[in-house]
Amino acid sequence: MHRNQFSPGSTPDASGLACEFSALRSLTEALVAPLSDADATIQSMPDASPAKWHLAHTTWFWETFLLREHAPGYTLHNDRWPFLFNSYYEAEGARIARGARGLLSRPSLEEIFEWRAVVDAAMAPLLADPAHADLIALGIAHEQQHIELLLTDIKHALFQNPLGPAMWDARSSPPALTTAAMGWHQHPGGIAMVGHEGAGFAFDNEGPRHRVLLQPFALADRLVTNGEWDAFISDGGYAKPRLWLADGWAWVQSEHIRAPLYWGEDGTHFTHRGWQQRDPHAPVTHISYYEADAFATWAGARLPTEFEWEVIAAAHDPALGNQLDRASPPLPSGSPGLFGDCWQFTRSAYLPYPGFRVPDGAVGEYNGKFMSGQVVLRGASCATVRGHSRASYRNFFYPHQRWQFTGLRLAKDLIQ
Amino acid sequence: MHRNQFSPGSTPDASGLACEFSALRSLTEALVAPLSDADATIQSMPDASPAKWHLAHTTWFWETFLLREHAPGYTLHNDRWPFLFNSYYEAEGARIARGARGLLSRPSLEEIFEWRAVVDAAMAPLLADPAHADLIALGIAHEQQHIELLLTDIKHALFQNPLGPAMWDARSSPPALTTAAMGWHQHPGGIAMVGHEGAGFAFDNEGPRHRVLLQPFALADRLVTNGEWDAFISDGGYAKPRLWLADGWAWVQSEHIRAPLYWGEDGTHFTHRGWQQRDPHAPVTHISYYEADAFATWAGARLPTEFEWEVIAAAHDPALGNQLDRASPPLPSGSPGLFGDCWQFTRSAYLPYPGFRVPDGAVGEYNGKFMSGQVVLRGASCATVRGHSRASYRNFFYPHQRWQFTGLRLAKDLIQ
Amino acid sequence: MHRNQFSPGSTPDASGLACEFSALRSLTEALVAPLSDADATIQSMPDASPAKWHLAHTTWFWETFLLREHAPGYTLHNDRWPFLFNSYYEAEGARIARGARGLLSRPSLEEIFEWRAVVDAAMAPLLADPAHADLIALGIAHEQQHIELLLTDIKHALFQNPLGPAMWDARSSPPALTTAAMGWHQHPGGIAMVGHEGAGFAFDNEGPRHRVLLQPFALADRLVTNGEWDAFISDGGYAKPRLWLADGWAWVQSEHIRAPLYWGEDGTHFTHRGWQQRDPHAPVTHISYYEADAFATWAGARLPTEFEWEVIAAAHDPALGNQLDRASPPLPSGSPGLFGDCWQFTRSAYLPYPGFRVPDGAVGEYNGKFMSGQVVLRGASCATVRGHSRASYRNFFYPHQRWQFTGLRLAKDLIQ
Amino acid sequence: MHRNQFSPGSTPDASGLACEFSALRSLTEALVAPLSDADATIQSMPDASPAKWHLAHTTWFWETFLLREHAPGYTLHNDRWPFLFNSYYEAEGARIARGARGLLSRPSLEEIFEWRAVVDAAMAPLLADPAHADLIALGIAHEQQHIELLLTDIKHALFQNPLGPAMWDARSSPPALTTAAMGWHQHPGGIAMVGHEGAGFAFDNEGPRHRVLLQPFALADRLVTNGEWDAFISDGGYAKPRLWLADGWAWVQSEHIRAPLYWGEDGTHFTHRGWQQRDPHAPVTHISYYEADAFATWAGARLPTEFEWEVIAAAHDPALGNQLDRASPPLPSGSPGLFGDCWQFTRSAYLPYPGFRVPDGAVGEYNGKFMSGQVVLRGASCATVRGHSRASYRNFFYPHQRWQFTGLRLAKDLIQ
């Protein structure tokens, strides 16, 4: 699992969970169907993991926390694999270095699929038991997270290949959209409630629900587009130090950054469907926090706080909610949003909410695994599994990272 | 200058400024009196600068922004020195790499002192002119900051020498204090005002003054001591991953951190007076944000936010204010607080306040020079010049940095 | 090709070449038969290449230098692949960074086999043409070299996997040998002839044949064994700086070297057949030049020069020749020498012979591709293809490299 | 000491030694007279040492190996200084990291001079004792080596300063020479004797004297000049991979090498007298082995072996000897050869001679301190102390190093 954990207040429905479990496990496998054993083995950078590793790690989670603990008589499918597929659970023992995951040509992709089948079969009785519902809901959310990471990691891996291999076939583009003038959701400021509460699964970092004080502000009603980013570049955006945070400017210079990740020559960008023309009306993606901040400064705006974003998202459900919906399904074919919407940077550092408590136990080991220096992203991307999104959901990355589907929604102060 | 700038609302008194200017320039030179040309030349790491460089850079500031702009007929003392002693003002042209400052054996310390005298003499007419009062107040604050950096940088440089040279003579220790039981300043939460306002100098990053919402909390009435830190170490604090932020734990392991910076064997630590016995009742210093956070977790507490700190500091002036006062004067001898109080970590990321605007112009270039990933420290240290402290003052460093006099004041939630 | 080139004086027999070509191409494919697509894709360090890359690169050689130049009407199988599979021939255009070869999940292993089949078929008419005999002999030697590299590179890759996967099945060990007392081939010194001359293929770096002056010396009649290396370790060999070259000692300390590469706990080592017990009577392998030199110093001996080795090898053909013969065939199963003999370090820096001239043209680009700082190894290893060995053969690596089958034969001065 | 040791066969004259000792110690101090404490403290790279360190290290040598061992009642001037000023004598205990020498602002330059005076006085009785003559001769040779290093290291340090400070005043240039056509010393090949033998000091690595076999060759009668190097650059010498050794080409690209070290714009170069115009007729200096080899290839020639150089040097004493003589005196002013002749690269790897034995004991610790990957240079430079040169002298550096006065004398094969 990436880093979040479930909220103990959630009470999922057991029969629904069994159905959801089955659908999710199938989705995971459908998504990797185009990958060869070799595709699924390579690792392009330490931040990313091989697709095979994601398939195995999610399975390790079910085996470790459900089957080993709660399925009488279950024996580990292979007792040397936990060393390979544990991510960072200290309580679960040693594990290989993160950067060495790409050298695991064995076990093969086929062996991992066999393991998945064994685990799925063994899980059946537990899925019906309400005593495990919380843990199963957590495992589902965990695997949903890894689906998104799998998709972004394999995109990064294929991008390294000079042949520019496509994971899925190209298809006829949707008719070109036009970019609407940017509208603004205005908010008068004041005390607001944020954070998750009530029924339904949420990660622990989404709570406790608490009051925050907002200044009067406005949040854009759409994302910044590729075309707008082209204008930023044309205006010398990457060459003007005053637009950038000091560490952002250092990053631009040391890494020779001149455009979003995956942008190529002549208006192209690399996608799961290989090299394609960029749509100037589509949201820009694969930018870092540094780039998002510089663009906002250039545009005379700023990044929203995570609470400004959440308050608008919760209130403007019809508008924003639809966007989330459209963005969600990362299906292997036909999804109109696959190159669509994205996680949106906020200016908020990733910190625990007031009153947050670290739960005990192995699964809960990472509820308090906060880091310094990461920023919160809100929303969801075209690679997020449908149903995994919430207005209170908090994603977080380091400011230089941009291999996720990351984009930008502007905010500004209102005169008080 | 380090990074902050003046608040336009301040209205310093011109005749007071002339007096303050003179006293400060003398203080700077008195502090470096024990240093040889070689002492003042060396640079122990890119984060630190040579003492000579600080002496020159502050002088460059006066020459560049006051004399060159406002003193008719003034010609640069040496027109090749700005390349050496500009820190990062892009508008002021190119400059040598930060890490190469320690190779500047020329100009000599004596030549820098001559330059200082020339500039001080040329400044006299300007000091009396109210039109320059704001800029002069800024220059004074700038030089005050560099005095603190000079003191912490030279300490770090001398520490590298296996001979452990002392900058000042050792002296008889004050009678050993006892550590009082930790008391707590309680606060019921609610809306509070923070940030600078009104007369008196402040940096731009201390405003605009604005409302914040506080949760009920308590702030410790004293700092964590060396003795308490010994207990943390004895309890295996540096060996328990669950106490640490994830990136803090990675830092502890890769850097083999086992104690605060400057701690030696057998209860000693390195000081400006050479190697000395640590006082278990004195505040712990030279810890990183990672260490501060881990200690707080170990102690069942947490770090305060910067606003919790400020609200208590403003309200408890008699208590906290005295501490600041005691800590302030970094005199070359006799100061009882020299190894005393310290900057205190908060959990707040360093971000601009709502409504903050970046000023125009060369001096104002860095008002908006915010970085990501830095945390706010509040208070002042034994190396802070008397008069440079304010309840609204915001210092900031990266979470791994600890060569400043950095310490820890605990906070905790109150049950709502 | 690794780095060597053919000697223009060689005159191979065309019909023999066709037979040799066919056998070699089959051997290459038989050796990789146990590898999956993923096994053949991964790259464990920049020094090593993926097995798939070796299969493709050798095929690229035939296509580029034979088919493209001399087969009328031949069109490249895929015109984007040369970018991937050129090694370093500047005249043949750009190529991907060496360290990025392990990210090429595409083309697949199957596609490479198809390419091999197409190229093999197209080669048939050229094999019969004596005009191409020299170039074909060179291509054969080239592919022979890559077979050895493929075997050592895949061993290194599988070694990274904590599961310790075996490429071939374990088999019953041969009966344990005993270690004979070390005998010495004595030589009185004087003028000797070294280097290749006459019929038969050789690389350019083996000539011109020339005179050298030898001091009286003796060369051991067998290799240093694992058991003898155990004694070196037991005697603190890795902890005594006086035994080591200065840069060797720095390497031991920075890399924490304590034993040959692939040595495990409890007398084991990693092999193509997985983790096995070491035979104390077998030659030690996978040592660096630094280790070889330190052992020789410890043993009161020294490394031979390359000419001492060659003169003895040429003279003692019955004895040494048999060893070479036994070492040669790297068959996928059943080879008694697979864990047997090894390349032997000399103290000679790798330099061109007197009168050496760099040939013109693309294939000849690398005849003069000498490097500084490499040392010559003589002999052949258990992974060397039968027929690729010669007394005049010069192999060469950097002093820290040890993933080849590298071992040690001692020499000593005779009193004059 | 750098790395060499004395030859036990040498029998210096005691009264001459006392005189030589005194003159040398004075010369060392005269050379550093222009340096400030800060100049003498800084270290520009780990390969180089501060001037103050050289002054102290040579003094440490006398104190450690002569006074401590042989002067009854002598006590160490400061018992903590050996930790600072030991270079790498393992038998003499721990020492600070080489790269940290530039942080030693204490002891001051003045304190080092005081130490030198104390040691010089204490040495007086020992200088007259023939029993110590060998060791004293070694100490003199050791200090001679460090004078050369001191001069090249301080040049490198001052070069880092953008002000380009001069160590000595500029002076009127000698009248421009013309470059003579290159003549050749021809040699018919055959057996020759090389290495030191007989009376007079020599380092151990210069023996044993032994026979070598030479091929017919010719050695240039003058060095390659700056003007000839300009032609190499104009012809694209730094942009043609075929001219370079493979590792040389990698070095050129990674380090962006385009000219010798210290070359500036518009025909200038940096010298001990600051930035000066280059003399096109003067020998090129400050080139690496890679550059020397590439130039030789470009010129249709090659580097000589160290034995070719030695045989010609010994035979053509009148011609070559004069050159050495002219090059020798590194006087603080007035030396016509200060920017003159230089060490000359050979293609020979630095290896012990046949029959070389490592002596026992602390002083002899480093006779066997050979490294791999270094090349031999012959001759002497303008910074070599008069009297330190010999035809058998072997200097050695890594192929990328070029902060010494290194240049190039061409060689070529004669047709047999």
From TrEMBL, chains A, B, C, D:
Protein name, entry field: Sulfatase maturase
Residue ranges annotated for the Sulfatase-modifying factor enzyme-like domain, each copy included: 188-315
Keywords, ordered alphabetically: Iron, Oxidoreductase
Domain of life of the source: Bacteria
BP terms from Gene Ontology: ergothioneine biosynthetic process
Organism: Erythrobacter neustonensis
InterPro entries in the cross-refs: CTDL_fold, DinB-like, EgtB, Sulfatase_Mod_Factor_Kinase, SUMF_dom, SUMF_sf
Key word Oxidoreductase present: yes
SUPFAM superfamilies: C-type lectin-like (SSF56436)
Keyword Iron belongs to the record: yes
Domain spans labelled DinB-like: 21-148
Pathway membership, UniProt: Amino-acid biosynthesis; ergothioneine biosynthesis
Alphabetized Pfam families for the sequence: DinB_2 (PF12867), FGE-sulfatase (PF03781)
